[in-house]
């Protein structure tokens, strides 16, 4: 606009979001959000596992798998099934090899 000649300058045009990205983000938020527990984290992993070939699915899966390994609350993220915080934070690393070693989540019979 004439009143602000630099508005948007240097920023790429915004593309419409892929609908899959929204679904994957919803899966992560539901099970691995700020309030989380082991069942929700496993449910997120189950929902994300078919999408490991998508960057959002892969990162979400790694977040959920890492959070499942940490059985305490840390920072803004609370494990509702283990709300205590350890006196010393343990550094957690997860690799592609670790990811492949995680067993397929068990699906309940409906």
What level of helicity do the residues show?
40-55%
Number of H/I helices: 4
In angstroms, what is the radius of gyration? 18 Å
Instruction: Return residue spans where pLDDT drops below 50 for at least 5 consecutive residues.
Output: none
The secondary-structure class comes to mainly alpha
| Largest sheet: number of strands, sense, barrel closure | 2 strands, parallel
| Silhouette | globular
Strands of the widest sheet, in order across it, are 1-2
Strand content: under 5%
Q: How many DSSP-defined strands? A: 2
User: Mean of the pLDDT scores?
Assistant: 81
Order of helices and strands: HEHHEH
- Terminal-residue CA separation: 57 Å
Provide structural commentary:
- The chain has 4 helices and 2 strands; from the N terminus they run H-E-H-H-E-H.
- The protein is mainly alpha-helical.
- 42% of the residues lie in helices and 4% in strands.
- It is globular, with a radius of gyration of 18 Å.
- It has helices at residues 19-32, 38-48, 55-69, 96-101, and strands at 35-36, 78-79.
- Strands 1-2 form a two-stranded parallel sheet.
